Task: inverse folding
């Protein structure tokens, strides 16, 4: 006996469900369309581009930071070197003068604190600034007493080592009357005093 209005479909189907008509497929059966695949590839490309851009900016920022730190370290090393050498400048009792000379981008000091010839006691340290490439060049002469190394002696850049690529104008001036060295490094100024003249 069959009740009218039964909730069962034909041929014992599940309650409330109907079978899809023959010849039609559901969403799960059709799979991903070509258009959807293209959209997915486009989105993936955009995301990859964004990630690459972010990484590139981070890498560039890191490289600039490393270069800036390296430049600052070299600058501080130069300032520390010339400060030590000026502080340990030799006082000539015969001439009653500190053995420091400065002229036209050239700065020389007979110092007890040489950079290269550390075992000689005294050496002539020579700094020369090249305005063309804004680089400080350096050399030393252990035989500082040699008459060839007088106030007119100017070594060639090719005979010196590049000490620091400053990238800014540098001036090293010795005030004989005041007994001080004025170092102008770009927009910064430093005053150095030999220990033999400091009060």
Result:
């Amino acid at each position: 006996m069959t009740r009218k209005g039964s909730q069962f479909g034909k041929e014992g189907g599940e309650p409330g469900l109907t079978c899809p008509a023959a010849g039609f497929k559901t969403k799960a059966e059709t799979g991903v369309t070509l258009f959807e695949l293209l959209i997915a590839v486009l989105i993936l490309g955009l995301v990859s581009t964004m990630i690459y851009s972010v990484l590139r900016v981070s890498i560039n920022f890191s490289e600039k930071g490393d270069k800036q730190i390296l430049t600052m370290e070299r600058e501080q090393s130069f300032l520390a070197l010339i400060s030590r050498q000026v502080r340990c400048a030799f006082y000539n009792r015969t001439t009653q003068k500190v053995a420091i000379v400065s002229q036209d981008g050239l700065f020389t000091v007979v110092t007890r604190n040489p950079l290269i010839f550390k075992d000689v006691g005294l050496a002539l340290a020579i700094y020369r600034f090249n305005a063309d490439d804004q680089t400080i060049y350096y050399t030393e002469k252990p035989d500082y007493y040699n008459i060839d190394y007088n106030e007119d002696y100017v070594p060639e850049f090719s005979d010196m080592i590049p000490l620091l690529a400053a990238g800014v104008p540098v001036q090293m001036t010795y005030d004989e009357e005041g007994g001080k060295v004025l170092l102008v490094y770009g927009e910064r100024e430093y005053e150095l005093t030999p220990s033999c003249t400091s009060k």
